[in-house]
Amino acid sequence: MALLLVAPAQGHTSTAGADATAVHRSEQRYQVPTVKVLTADGRAQALRPLLDDGRPVVLTFLYTSCTTVCPVTSHVIDEFVRALGAEAPQVNVVSVSIDPDHDTVTRLAEHARSRRAQGTFVTGDPQSSETVQRAFDAWRGDKMNHDAVIFLRAPASPVWVRLDGLVSPRRLLDEYRRLKPA
Questions:
Q1: Facing residues of 94 across strands?
Q2: 12: closest CA among 160, 140, 141?
Q3: Is the dihedral of CA 99, 82, 178, 89 positive or negative?
Q4: pLDDT at position 2, please?
Q5: pTM for the full predicted model
Q6: Choice between 9 and 182, residue whose per-residue pLDDT is larger
Q7: Rg (CA), the chain
Q8: Which helix H or strand E contains 97, and what residues bound it?
């Protein structure tokens, strides 16, 4: 996987160490790095066009062997997609592995299948994974220190809504409905 560009987040105030039950909402501008990722169906693809496919984006970070916040966040995403019903294909749901050494294409595909999850699951090499996490101010040194965070963006908007904390499916749906196109 090639690393071509890294740009730090602009204007984010970290909520690391905040009360786990609180959800902190902020609006941020992130520069999506020019890295290649592997989708769970084995396709190599540049991340930027994957995210910029003309639909609203819901982005999360996870790893398949996680037993803490990842299952909760995954459940929230699954319930959000179910609540969308027939509208679900109009939303670009992307989950990025923060454990590419373990989360192979096969493992991600099995993870998605076992949850009957919709969306795109991606992995890559460790450097690319870290680059993406850093670009979204989600890098915490290693997978064991990751935070519960979900990102949303309207099509073609430069502004991402960042939700730090354990978000409910209803809150995620409400935030999605509030997205404004650029």
A1: 59, 120
A2: 160
A3: positive
A4: 37
A5: 0.82
A6: 182
A7: 15
A8: strand 92-97
Question: Of 20, 148, 181, 167, which Cα lies nearest the Cα of 80?
Answer: 167
* 165, amino acid identity: G
The residues, any chain, with a CB within 8 Å of residue 12's CB and separated by 6 or more, are 26, 28, 137, 162
| Torsional sign, CA 169, 157, 91, 137 | negative
| Residue 145: per-residue pLDDT | 59
Question: Which residue has tokens 């905040």?
Answer: 18
What contacts 44, CB < 8 A, 6 or more positions away? Answer: 1, 36, 37, 38
Contacts of 10 (CB under 8 A, 6+ apart): 28, 29, 30
- Report DSSP letters for 111-178, one per residue: HHHHHT--SEEEE--HHHHHHHHHHTT---SSGGG---EEEEE-TT-S-EEEEES---HHHHHHHHHH
